[in-house]
Structure to design on (469 residues):
């Protein structure tokens, strides 16, 4: 059985304890059998018995009121298992259902969803122009999935902006490699940067290879980046935590429905050898509101055990564990059966893991970069496209004064300055050339790690720690 910590996801299903069989016992609730018989015999609308049973099962799961607990039909269960395959086509975003709404937990870093501008807490309102009324979580997942290279359009409501956005996401293969690294040389120091996009089956092995390489190249400290990491397998995060913590450390607790606590103790994996320097090297973990579930297990452990410095922003706040249980009809129930607690027995559900140093990211890193904007705008116009241009200009350091979509004098001056700087004329209008050039400049800005304020703060902090000796 595989223990995992995450919600149903589009690109990857982080399941639970799988393969367990629910005990088949006769129903003691006669009223259910009674209602079944009445509907079958006297209802004017014919319904197959299996549909009634599956409706009752789905209703029981929905009644729990837990977005991470759900019922899968036999067909949905097969799709759920298929999503665990190593070859995954999708958009790369975790989605959950809460109070009847379908919410993005986090887009995986560099995934199609991330590139298209989906953000944590976005509520999916429509898919390809059609509402989600009556859809289950699995229905929504199936509608978003599709062939590589095809596009799905999504209308999302973004609470931060209090507005709806139209996004277009091109489905693609989701990278199987979950750990990426490079050596950063700044301030006369060498810092190993390691990004973990999800905690997959092979993440611990990838982590061992990456950290070995960084340390061999002279890394004096490590930055672990779990921003936008929606979670994954608990055994993977346990192995990685074990490479950083003292032997026999408790990195989390499992708490069952009766309140009984089971400590999770780091163990050395049989098939992976970690560099012992990892237990002593200075460490910063970067997280944000898209860091959920297993990511929070790692940050919670490092914070409580004072092994690393947590920087960025507060994490998502998912503190439950799901168990996937087979049913006799071929379906499955995925049920939240445990809470997980940090080493200091804190439950972070709905709260998130706090940071030691809060660092806001430049807003350009969270901005959806649109495609072609064909309409021309001038002073006196008002449009959402203008507000988009104002936000991007402000992020690049131009003084626009406002971001509400009204093209005033200050906006006109900023547009003219930008065009002159980019050598595309000095007209004070927003046209196709302006928007194309603006898009290219923002993309270059985001590719330059010097503009990643959270990363730069982590580097500066570690440099200070190393200088102190």
């Amino acid at each position: 059985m595989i223990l995992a910590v995450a919600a149903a996801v589009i690109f990857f299903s982080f399941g639970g304890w799988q393969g367990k069989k629910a005990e088949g016992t006769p129903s003691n609730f006669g009223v259910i059998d009674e209602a079944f018989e009445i509907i079958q015999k006297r209802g004017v609308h014919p319904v197959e018995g299996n549909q009634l049973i599956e409706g009752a099962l789905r209703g029981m799961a929905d009644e729990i009121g837990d977005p991470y607990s759900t019922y899968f039909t036999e067909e949905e269960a097969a799709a759920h298992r298929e999503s665990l395959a190593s070859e995954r086509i999708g958009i790369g975003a975790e989605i959950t259902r809460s109070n009847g709404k379908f919410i993005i937990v986090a887009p995986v870093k560099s995934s199609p969803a991330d590139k298209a501008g989906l953000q944590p807490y976005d509520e999916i309102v429509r898919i390809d122009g059609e509402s989600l009324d009556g859809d289950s979580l699995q229905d929504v997942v199936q509608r978003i999935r599709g062939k590589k290279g095809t596009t799905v359009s999504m209308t999302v409501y973004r609470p931060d902006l209090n507005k709806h956005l139209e996004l277009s996401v091109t489905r693609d293969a989701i990278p199987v490699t979950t750990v990426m690294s490079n050596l950063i040389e700044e301030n006369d120091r060498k810092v190993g940067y390691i990004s973990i996009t999800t905690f997959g089956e092979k993440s611990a092995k990838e982590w061992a290879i990456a950290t070995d390489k960084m340390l061999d190249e002279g890394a004096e400290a490590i930055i672990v980046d779990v921003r936008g990491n929606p979670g994954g397998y608990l055994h993977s995060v346990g192995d990685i935590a074990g490479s950083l913590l003292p032997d026999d450390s408790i990195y989390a607790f499992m708490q069952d429905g009766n309140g009984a606590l089971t400590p999770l103790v780091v163990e050395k994996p049989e098939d992976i050898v970690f560099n012992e320097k990892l237990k002593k090297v200075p460490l910063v973990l970067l997280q944000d509101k898209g860091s959920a579930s297993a990511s929070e297990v790692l940050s919670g452990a490092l914070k409580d055990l004072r092994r690393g410095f947590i920087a960025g922003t507060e994490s998502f706040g998912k503190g439950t564990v799901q168990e996937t249980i087979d049913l006799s009809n071929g379906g499955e129930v995925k049920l939240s059966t445990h809470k997980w607690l940090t080493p200091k027995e804190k439950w972070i559900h709905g709260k998130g893991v706090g940071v030691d140093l809060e660092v806001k990211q430049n807003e350009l890193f969270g901005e959806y970069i649109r495609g072609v904007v064909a309409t021309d705008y001038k002073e006196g116009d008002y449009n959402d496209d203008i507000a988009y241009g104002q936000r991007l200009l402000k992020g690049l350091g131009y003084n626009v004064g406002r971001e509400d979509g009204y093209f005033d004098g200050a906006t006109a001056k900023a547009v003219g300055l930008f065009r002159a700087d980019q050598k595309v004329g000095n007209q004070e209008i927003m046209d196709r050339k302006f928007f194309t050039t603006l898009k290219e400049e923002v993309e270059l800005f985001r590719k330059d790690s010097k503009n990643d304020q959270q990363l730069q703060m982590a580097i500066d902090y570690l440099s200070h720690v190393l200088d102190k000796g």
Summary: Residues 231 and 294 are 4 Å apart (CA to CA).
